[in-house]
Amino acid sequence: MVRLPLTPAEVARGQRLGALLRRARGERSMLEIALDARVSPETLRKIESGRVATPAFPTIAAIADVLDLSLDAVWAEISRSDSDVRSANADHCARERLTA
Q: I want to staple 24 with a disulfide (CB 3.0 to 4.6 A). Which of 44, 54, 58, 67 is the partner?
């Protein structure tokens, strides 16, 4: 199966997800969280660093559960900037049309 390259929005969303999980983990060790979520520490490390921008839903659900994060809150946090980016792009395109 060929995997399509990630869009800049997907990469940014992955980075926001990683930052959210790092903040929620706080002082707890990555190993502790990974073991409790039944994922490998390397998987958690890759997600937190943004190297895995589109992790599997069950993986995120397990990590969120261990961190006491609701999936609604996770989605709201990581997708919030997507709409901001789309809005900014629409504004930019509208300004370009006006000046053209």
A: 67
**Residue for token pair 């997600």:** 47
45 is written with which tokens?
């490390």
Based on C-alpha coordinates, what's the Rg of the chain? Answer: 16
Q: What is the pTM of this model?
A: 0.76
Q: Identify the pLDDT of residue 88.
A: 47
DSSP secondary structure of 19-77: HHHHHHHTTS-HHHHHHHHTS-HHHHHHHHHTSSSS--HHHHHHHHHHTT--HHHHHHH
Q: Which residues contact 81 (CB under 8 A, 6 or more apart)?
A: 12, 13, 16
pLDDT tens column, 61-71:
999 999 999 99
Q: In which element (H, E) is residue 80 found?
A: helix 71-99
